[in-house]
Amino acid sequence: MNRDHKTVWAACLEIIRDNIDEKLYNTWFAPIVPVKLENNALTIQVPSPFYYEWLERNCIHLLKKTINAVLGTSGKLRYKILMDTNPTGKPQTTTIPSVGAQATQNKPVDVAVNVNDGDVQNMPNPLIFPGIKKIKIPSQLNENYTLENFVEGDCNRLARAAGYAVAKDPGKTAFNPLLLHGGVGLGKTHLAHAIGIKTKEYHSDKTVVYLSSEQFMQQYATAGKDHNTNDFIRFYGMTDVLIIDDIQFWANKAPRTQEAFFHIFNDLHQRNKQIIITSDKAPSELSGLEPRLISRLKWGLAADLQTPDVETRMAILRQKLENDGIDMPNDVIEYIAYSINTNVRELEGALISLIAQSSLNKKQITIDLAKQMIDKFVKSTSREITIEYIQKIVCDYFNLPIESIQSRTRKREIVQARQLTMYFAKKLTKASLAIIGLQCGNKDHATVLHACKTVANLNETDKQFHHWVSELEKRFQE
Predict the structure, then answer these.
(1) In terms of Cα–Cα distance, which of 315, 44, 391 is closest to 153?
(2) With contact defined as beta carbons under 8 Å apart, do 262 and 290 qualify?
(3) I want to staple 240 with a disulfide (CB 3.0 to 4.6 A). Which of 30, 101, 117, 206 is the partner?
(4) Which residues pair with 82 in a beta bridge?
């Protein structure tokens, strides 16, 4: 029976459709156009080199089985690739060599699936455009952002540990993709750069590329105008570690950019290449991104970065001062750490402002200068009173170490300080009784409630206690 190329390809599609997911079929096989059937070799046209590589990498066994079933054991498959338009505006095509075959210039040869080859493991390296193979892709990594100067705390321990694991074995861990998420100024960008830098230290041969989501979107738009979208996708498909920062900016816009990244993501992931993404929200909370892209973000690990606690904030300040070779009194460091509790960026901003104030006015850095500077800074950033800050104020007032409030001691002066801390924590914060108790010596909510009632009663009946409460209230209002 005589069959033309369209009939043969239709028969192939029936087999393919029964063996893969419908979405996969629509994405990768529906756009293919049969071109000719000659000497039992079917030629099909694919939209881009990226399509050719993806099919060869992921569907070689299925294609071999299909050609064998439709054309017999002597059947062959050739690809005709639709290239971008040349300066004359005419589309260009190229025919790709077969598995194990040597390409000859301007002469099409059998390709990809030759059912007599037997071993499909000997597939050649993916096609590289002339010139692209020689490009050394710049990493765009900021060398100042390292894992060594990324201060670890309870707020970021999981994310930092995952970063180390990824750097040691990129693409081979369960953390692929690695999504770092958290609020503004908590260190997502720093950590993303740091993972890339550490990866280069462990694997100097790896191609690591960092770029913001806006850069990616602008580059894709430019590539579209220049009819180079295929080159764009191939370019980032050449990376071993791809880092995209602030992916939430694609929300409710850039559908074509999202689609391009979706294909790049799939290609990199299937070849065990590492993908690192940052966002201000967890995948389940991201809205405005394509559902299929969000589903990919859930494949690996989503590690959140939270607001650092006071110990971590002090460690960040000390490291910053050490790196800059500046000495600062410990009480000043503590005051800044307790006063600025929003994020790392504002914490470092307050420190820089204080140092500048001291340098420009030739004043020594003291607690009084810090209070003047930080009070102005905090007014513009609306200070939030925390349990840690309350502990600091109460302990300073009674000249006690903070550890005493968190201890189990029953000394009268410490019990009173602990009760006052619980009282003000309930009054000035939104923390639950359980959280207050946990941070004040690991007490239960009943103990916190009892402490609050005790302070309220003594404030009305005991002059000394009333004086303490009044003085402390003034300090919280300063």
Answers:
(1) 315
(2) yes
(3) 206
(4) 93
